[in-house]
Amino acid sequence: MSKDDNILKNDSPWGSPPGGGGQGRGDGNGSGQRRQPPNIDDLIRKAQGSVGRIFPGGKGGNKPIYLGIIVLLVLWALSGLYRVLPDEQGVVLRFGKFVTTTQPGLNYHIPYPIERVLTPKVTKVNRIDVGFRSESDSGRSSGVGDVSEESLMLTGDENIVDIDYSVFWVIKDAGKFLFNIQSPLETVKAASETAMREVIAKSQIQSILTEGRSKIETEVQEITQGILDEYGSGIQVTQVQTQKADPPDQVIDAFRDVQAARADRERSKNEAEAYANDVIPRARGEAEKVLQQAEAYKKEVVAKAEGEASRFLAIYNEYKDAKQVTQERMYLETMEKVLADIDKVIIDKNSGSGVVPYLPLPEIKKKAQQ
């Protein structure tokens, strides 16, 4: 008999076929062998035997119960698997007490009732309005309702401003968010209102209504975040957005008149500055021109005086060396200057007729020029 036949005969996991034989006959002539189908009763007896070996003290009738308990234990252990989505954080509680947080992905915890898991959304941007309420929140279809007890604030220059703003925030740490603060919405609202009143109390109303809004929003966000971090709230403030900043309704008309007067003052001031910027440079230019002309005249007079003095000294030195010649030359030069532009008749007393022929060259020259 072959080895395989021996295994089929003696070690079959399904036991012996009915009739006590390990082999079955084929078509009646004994020439072939075939394996018999398993017996259900034998299978049950073998399963009970296996359970008996695990729980040797149990009775045969209780063995299926133990098997069911094992299956239940396995299912209970597998129930500890849980998945955290990308926009969530897992918060593990042990007998209701916060233990740890888990990140997105497949995780495991001790199954209920020992531990359980909460998975809040941590990427959702939440919004809180301070100073106003959307009418849709109060059941109406549209519009905005003002909440004056939240929006009216005292400024640094002792004015009152009506300011509405919104705070946007997300969950930073789900465990702290769920267990460190009782009312997250009220906490964020109270912290932001405290921060806004602090910043407004240090600011001027003109800055609040015009160019100072972005600075106010940044400061309020930083102060609010600091308060929430001190509470251990697990909240991250992403933005503070000013919706409206106006004087109170009771004085808004007067305030607009004041603003218009200030605008007129600024316009007149700018026009005066423009006129001054035009006139003053021109006056300064004229003054500089006069100074330069005076300086030039001064230099001219001084230079001319120095030249005359030098000329006089030169003539004087010549005069000392040859007085007669110098006197005669000076006389002739002086007469030349005096008689240059007048009509002249020259008479020589030594001539016979007393008249010297004269050619009027200057008159001829004038006529030629005309």
Properties at a glance:
370 residues, alpha+beta, Tetrahydropterin Synthase, Chain A, 4 domains, four-stranded antiparallel β-sheet
Report on this model:
The longest helix has about 70 residues, at about 250-320. With about 375 residues, this protein is of the alpha+beta class. The protein folds into four domains: about 5-75, no CATH class; about 80-120, no CATH class; about 130-245, Tetrahydropterin Synthase, Chain A (2-Layer Sandwich), CATH 3.30.479; about 325-370, no CATH class. It has eleven helices and 13 strands. The protein starts with a helix and ends with a helix. A hairpin with a 5-residue loop joins strand 11 (about 150-155) and strand 12 (about 160-170).
Q: Which CATH top level class of the largest domain fits?
A: Alpha Beta
Class computed from helices, strands and strand pairing? alpha+beta
Helix content: 40-55%
- What number of structural domains do the residues give? 4
Round the Cα radius of gyration to an integer and report it: 60 Å
Q: List low-confidence stretches.
A: 1-35, 138-143
Overall 3D form: rod-shaped
Strand residues, percent:
15-25%
Q: How far apart lie the N and C ends?
A: 165 Å
Which H/E pattern describes the elements?
HEEHHEEEEEEEEHEEHHHHEHHH
**Average pLDDT taken over every residue:** 76
Number of strands: 13
Largest sheet, in brief, is:
4 strands, antiparallel
| Multimer state | single chain
Q: What would CATH call the homologous superfamily of the largest domain?
A: Band 7 domain
Assigned CATH architecture of the largest domain: 2-Layer Sandwich
